Amino acid sequence: MNKTAIISGGSQGIGKALVKKFLSEGFTVYTCSRTGDKLKDLTTEFNSPLLHTFVADLSDKKQCQDFAGWVLGQTKTIDVLINNAGFFMPGQIQNEEDGVLERQIEANLYSAYHLTRAFLPTLQAQKSGHIFTICSTASITAYTAGGSYCISKFALLGFTKVLREETKLQGIKVTAILPGATLTPAWDGVELPESRFIPADDVASTIYSAYTMNPSTVLEEILIRPQLGDIEL
What we know:
Elements (H helix, E strand, L loop, with lengths): L3 E4 L5 H12 L3 E6 L2 H11 L4 E5 L5 H12 L7 E4 L16 H27 L3 E5 L12 H21 L5 E7 L20 H12 L9 E4 L9
Parallel strand pairs: 1-2, 1-4, 2-3, 4-5, 5-6, 6-7
């Protein structure tokens, strides 16, 4: 039986690189996106019977539960869960539009919270599995244009730390990934060379490497930055 990876937000960026990596390693992959057309493109590009897609906006609790229910209707085991869904909105607390904090928290924090809670009973019953959460350098560094995005990512790292403490005696590994500027569509329009960014495939390879470590070992946090350092938000 193939191992199973669940990757939220898998249609582009780091999520797409993760789908590519885990498919290449023979995993059955379940992923979702808010945009059906992007999922169709993903399916066409990878052309793999191991890839299964579902349209869902994970900033909505009901759609989180729908995605989880769909996955659990097709597999009874989970080897890897990667909480990747989320988005970036630049701004400052003092002047960003009303509602930005709520949207960032819903997409970047609540999606991981609700999705993890939906799959935890399965992971606990099998006493195994690895949960990765895509945080950010913005989880540990306040940027002047980070605003509510930084707040949501600080909270996401806190969520991951709490989850690690709760589950470490249950056979479940938990890892926070903190990438800096990664070459994804989020940086479209920025006039910087590709060499200034982390390739998304490097993030995916790092996560897979962390997954393959000995059962007695866990990398709790992985900080990844461009060689030349952070790009100021």
